[in-house]
From TrEMBL:
Residues 4-176 form the Transketolase-like pyrimidine-binding domain. One of its GO terms (molecular function) is oxidoreductase activity. This is Transketolase-like pyrimidine-binding domain-containing protein. Its cofactor is thiamine diphosphate. SUPFAM superfamilies: Thiamin diphosphate-binding fold (THDP-binding), TK C-terminal domain-like. Keywords: Oxidoreductase, Thiamine pyrophosphate. Pfam families: Transket_pyr, Transketolase_C. It comes from Candidatus Azambacteria bacterium RIFCSPHIGHO2_02_46_12. It comes from the Bacteria.
Amino acid sequence: MRTLYFGKAINVALAEEMEKDSSVYIIGQDVGYGGVYGITKGLRKKFGEERVLDAPLSENLILGHAAGSALLGRRPVVEIQFSDFLSVGFPMITQLIASYRWRSGTGLPIVIRAPYGGGKNGGPFHSQCPESWFLNVPGLKIVIPSTPADAYGLLKTAIADPDPVLYLEHKKLYWEIKGEVPEQDDANAAIPFGKAAIRHYGHDCLIVSYGLTALMAEEAAKVLWEKNEISCAVLDLRTLMPLDEQEMIRFANSCGKVLIVHEAPKLWGPGAWLAQIVKEANHHVRVGILGSQYTPSPFSPPLEEFYLPNSEKIVQAVKDLLTWRKK
């Protein structure tokens, strides 16, 4: 094992896959010098300009280039500078890339990487959580890691996948979170899609989350036990599509109460869909949802703190769920 930052784990996974397969290449804005967050730093020097390709400021062009090259047998890894700008490339993703196998019988092995989320005072154009935009688009896999090991292993699986993968990385994790990552020759390094991870065991309440909020949920679970002797399980979904429904339902049935936490706005967010799955499996399970406010993300630090979920809000939401009584 080696200890790496979340961002470095992605960088290392990219380098290893590019070494292994000459058809893998990177395309995006400013990826030649490392990109906004330094994730591709050093890769152009190692692999050359043709495999770490700087592109103009046009998400549709970048995604169209990736689609065309994938048809010719290459395996592009696209970097979109901020996930907010996936909206600019929305037609290419939803109308061409996602549905191509359904229409032609040929998959497009494209990985679309994008940093998402707030907490950096980036305001409404650099802080959005776009997963809900794409959950209703058949043909896309949606991956959201929370640990360096998952960032590494899930990216390897994404690059090997024969179909398009939307790979979302929370920008706060890049250089703030360190963890153990398998060595390159570890046969178990790649992590299969649709396999959730249990981060904390408990029996009073299940907290379901992914990405940065999964780490917040784990922290909240520890506080709830230490201060209130409330025992919470924490399930990190890791991939929203495919979804590990079986594991989520199993723990939900065991605990009887479920809190779903995500950074996307609570209203019309992924939590509603996850809650429906839980309730259809067992209508006796009590389900709550915690997400961001239904407003654009604020620039102001105090307003953003109010807007976003955090571990303290998760603690309170669990307490509210456990003490709720039907009126």
